Amino acid sequence: AAVPAAAPVVPVAAPAPAAPSGGRVAASPLARKEAQAKGVDLSRIVGTGPGGRVTFDDVHNAPAQAGVAQAHASDYAISPEAAYLAAKLAHSAQTAPHYYLTMDIQVGKALKLLEELNAGEDAKIGLGDLFVKAAANAAVAVPDVNASWLDGVVRQYQRVDVNLVVGVGEGLRAPVLIGVEDMSLKDVATASATAMEDESPYMAGTMTVQNLGAFGLSSAAPVVHTPQACCLALGAVVDAAALVDGKVVSQPKLAATLAADHRVVDGAVGAAWLAALRALVEAPAKLLL
Asked: How much is the pTM?
């Protein structure tokens, strides 16, 4: 009877061999290219070439277990609120037709006003607090932004409740300030400070403000927290040249970016709201009325 031919020898992965001196595995250029394409760790392949050199065939025929070992990693649990926000934002990104509008806003007068208001006060009003108040007042002036898309129906709200995005990673939260349009700047600052410490379950507002200026970002493009229609992201304050009374001077400004759901807020309405926001911030005494 004929003797069956022996099966071809297939190189197998070595059990975590030590890397050769110098840390570089001897391998042909074609083997290296194939290893990169397959995501194979050459140090786990037994070479059949001269002096143990890894050949193209060695890599090509290597079994799956010869691939790259798992990188060092660890898992961590996230809070229920962070998990809820993650699911909510994923759904929003997939279902809401987003668009973005960015406007530069001069903040010199606002910073000067805050300096005057905070003089001798223990609890300070921040620029972020001023923008939260201005966002709510602008929503009163342009009420179409203070609305939600609900299964083909647009619901407009009579009160402006603002979610503040705070924390990062597993600590991400979005506490809500209720009826911001009726608050004073000091009330907003106090409510914001209290909200930062509040770990109660997530409550949906009617719009969201996210201040990323502390990270030095010039601008950001956030995801709308549906069913809300708008999210405002603030960039860092930077000094920029401006023309004042015919003279070029340096003035602080920041970029404010509106993310909006186009089903509820079209571009003209979004632009009108941003313009109203800028008018309030650049003439901040109006926020004291």
From this structure: 0.73
